[in-house]
C-alpha cells in the first residue's frame, strides 16, 4: 500500500516536473501563441510543482533528507542573491530575480530531499526531466515537418541555416537536449539488456542529431563532455569505460565535422572599410560609421572590411566580449552590480557579437555578484556533486545507476554555462532541471547510507 | 553531539556576519566605481572644452538607453572625443579615441549615479544644427 502510494505520488511529482520544464520551453518558443501561454504557465507550474513536492515530502517525511551543509550552502547563496539588492544598480529587479531563483532552488531541494532514501523516486524525477527533453525534441521535429520556415533559422552571411525546432533560438533548445544527453545515456547504461537500452540509445541519437542540426557548438560540447562524466562514474570495468570514452570522443569529432558542412551565405560584395559617409548634413551621424554596439574590434579600428568568417573553432568575437565583460566585472569585483543585473551592466560594444549578455554564465555571475557570489555558487555546486561522485567512484553507483546520470546532467548544465548565461534566470529552459539534477546528486550518498544522513532542521 | 552543533552555530554566526559585512563593502565598491568612471568622463569633458566649437562634427541620437551623443574631431580623427548624455542632461558615457584603442568611461548602467551634467537643450540644439543639410 505504501509503495503504491509512493509510486503514485512520485509519478505525479515527476509529471509536474516534466510539465514545469516544458512550460519553460514554451516560454521561449518560436510560436508566439505558445509563448503567451508558456510565460505565465511556467510560474503557475512552478507553484504547482512546489505544492506537489511539498505533499510528497510530507507524505513520507520520515524519509526526507538533505545534508545540512548543502542546506546551509543554499541558504547562503539565496541570502547573497537577496542582499545584493542593497548595492545593486537595479534593486527592484535584483529582488525579483532573487526571489524567483530562490523559489526554484527551494522547490528543487524539497524534491531532491524526497528522493534521498528512495532510488525509484530519484529515477522517476530524472525520468521526468528526460521526458521533458524528449518532448521538446519531438515538438521541434514535428514543427519542422509542419512549418520548416519556423523550425529553421534562415542562413545569413555569418551563419548557415540552423535548426531551432520549437524554440526561438537555435541555442535554446540545444541546451535542454544537451542536458538530456547524459540522462538518456545513463538510462541506457543502467538498462541491463540491449532491448531495454535501445529506446534510450535512440533518444540519445535524436538529441545529438538535433543539436548538430542546430549548429550549437556549446550544446554539442556540453552534451558530449557530460557523456564522458557519466562514463567516468559508471561502475564498469576500466577497459570498457576507456573504450566507450574513445567512442564518445569519436562521435563528438564526427558530430563537430557535420556541424561544419552547411555554409553561410556568401556576401554579395565585401563590405569595404567604410569611410565617413558622404555628408549630406552638416554633421556626421556617427552610428552609420562607428556604431556604439561595434566599437570594440570594429572595422573602423581594425582597418579591415569587417567580414566575419565563423568556423568550428573561431571564438574571436565571443572572447572579445568576455574580456570586456570581465573588465566590466572587475570594476566592482567583490560584490558585483547586483544579482539579475547582468544585462544592464553588460554593454555590448563588440563587433560581431550579437547578444545583450556575455554568453558565459560564470562571467555573468561575476558581473552580478562579484567574486564572492561566483565562489559561493561554485562551492555550493561542488558540495552538492561530491557525494554522488564519491558514491559512484566507490562503486555504489552500480546498485541503482542514477547517480552518474544526475552528475552527468549537472555537469552538462555547468558546461553549458561556459557558452550560455543562464545561472540567474529562473525561467530559463534548463534552470529548474539543472538545480534538480545538482540537488539530487547531493543526496546520493544518503540513499545508500541512511544512518549517516543528517536530517535537515 | 554537542560539539558539532556548537561548530555549526559558530560557522552560521560567522557566515551571517560576513554576509552583513558585505553590504557596506558592496556599497563602497559601487560608489568607488562611480567615482572612477565619472573622473574619466570629466577628463574627456575637459579635453573637449566648450560644447559648441568648430571641432564638433558628429552626433548620435537615441542610442543605448536613450542616449544622445556629441562627437568632436581632433587632428584627422573625426570621432576622437565623444560625450553621451541622457534625457536628464546627465553625462553617462565618454569615449576618448585619440589612442590606438578606445578609452571608455561609462556609467550608463546606473545613470542616476552621474553627477556630471551638460546643458541638454543646448546639446540638442547643436545636434539639430548638425542634422541640417550641408550648404
Keywords:
heterodimer, A: 457 residues, mainly alpha, two-stranded antiparallel ribbon, 3 strands, B: 135 residues, alpha+beta, 5-stranded antiparallel sheet, 26% strand, elongated
Task: Give the gist of this structure.
Chain A has 457 residues and is an all-alpha fold. Helices cover 66% and strands 1% of the residues of chain A.
Your description of this structure?
- The complex is a heterodimer of chains A (457) and B (135).
- With 457 residues, chain A is mostly helical.
- Chain A has one domain.
- Chain A has 18 helices and three strands.
- Chain A has helices spanning 2-27, 32-59, 68-83, 91-115, 119-146, 148-151, 170-190, 194-214, 217-233, 238-260, 299-302, 316-329, 342-345, 361-393, 397-400, 402-416, 431-442, 444-448; strands spanning 152-153, 162-163, 284-285.
- In chain A, strands 1-2 form a two-stranded antiparallel sheet.
- In chain A, strand 1 and strand 2 form a beta hairpin.
- In chain A, helix 8 (194-214) packs parallel to helix 10 and helix 14 (361-393) packs antiparallel against helix 16 (402-416).
- Chain B is an alpha+beta fold.
- Chain B has one domain (2-131).
- Chain B has two helices and five strands.
- Chain B has a five-stranded antiparallel β-sheet.
- The mean pLDDT of chain B is 93.
- The interface between A and B is large, with 42 and 45 residues.
Number of helices in the DSSP assignment of chain B: 2
Q: Mean pLDDT of chain A, rounded to whole units?
A: 90
What is the general shape of chain A? globular
Spatial separation of the terminal alpha carbons of chain A: 29 Å
The helix/strand order of chain A is: HHHHHHEEHHHHEHHHHHHHH
Topology:
The complex is a heterodimer of chains A (457) and B (135).
Chain A: H1 2-27, H2 32-59, H3 68-83, H4 91-115, H5 119-146, H6 148-151, E1 152-153, E2 162-163, H7 170-190, H8 194-214, H9 217-233, H10 238-260, E3 284-285, H11 299-302, H12 316-329, H13 342-345, H14 361-393, H15 397-400, H16 402-416, H17 431-442, H18 444-448
Helix pairs in contact in A: 1-2, 1-5, 2-4, 3-4, 3-14, 4-5, 4-17, 5-7, 5-8, 5-17, 7-8, 7-9, 7-16, 8-10, 9-10, 9-16, 12-14, 14-16, 14-17, 16-17
Chain B: H1 2-48, E1 56-63, E2 67-74, E3 77-85, E4 91-96, E5 103-106, H2 120-131
Antiparallel strand pairs in B: 1-2, 2-3, 3-4, 4-5
